[in-house]
Amino acid sequence: MPITATPTPGSKLISPRDHTLIMIDFQSQMSFATKSIDAVLLRNNAALVAHAAAGFEVSTILTTVAEKSFSGPMFEEITAAFPGQPLLDRTSMNTWEDAAVIKQVNAIGKTRLVFCGLWTSVCIVGPTLSALDQGFEVYAIADACGDVSDEAHERAMERMIQAGVQPMTSLQYLLELQRDWARSETYDLTTGIAKKFGGAYGLGVTYAKTMFGAHEG
After folding, report:
1. For residues 96 and 126, is the Cβ–Cβ distance under 8 A?
2. 66-103: per-residue pLDDT in tens?
3. Which positions ≥6 away from 183 have C-beta within 8 Å?
4. For residue 46, which of 73, 84, 79 has the smallest C-alpha distance?
5. How far apart are CA 112 and CA 18, in angstroms?
6. How far does CA 100 lie from the centroid of its chain?
7. Helix (H, G, I), strand (E, B), or coil: what is residue 125?
8. CA gap 185, 191 in Å, rounded
């Protein structure tokens, strides 16, 4: 039978209200050994994700490990997007084994989870595989994670993807939340975040708007 196409989004695309974002261990101490991505770029990408989630009012959990005793504070670019939101500090390397985090996941009640965190092989592999086991639909923002080597990051991503985790990027996350330039209520939010944190794409937006008054949509 022929298939009739319709102008509707696929069920695998995310939207602001259908998921919880979990940002894990973006802290100073572990940044020193992160080599698969430049630390400045990692901070920038994490900030883009945080500000996108805050702007679109995505339910978000922020968690740290040994903040006071070892790992240091969460990146200010992230906490600035969520003023006053408490950070859930843990002792467990696997976020999913922390009762306070799971209590918050259950309180929010979303079955689709998006993860990003400092070390791909530790901060992200543990909770994503654990969440998959419990029936959640899981995404990982690959360029808002890093690791001690390219090998460590790539193997971690492969392991998650093989298990069923769906990969995406930070800019993709922002643009998938917007998805239609005709959504005028979040147009300035999206382009503003892109100009501030969107790298070369953001520069292009700035140039087009400044030189030609261009406007997507």
Report:
1. yes
2. 667 666 788 899 999 999 999 999 999 999 999 999 99
3. none
4. 79
5. 7
6. 20
7. helix
8. 12
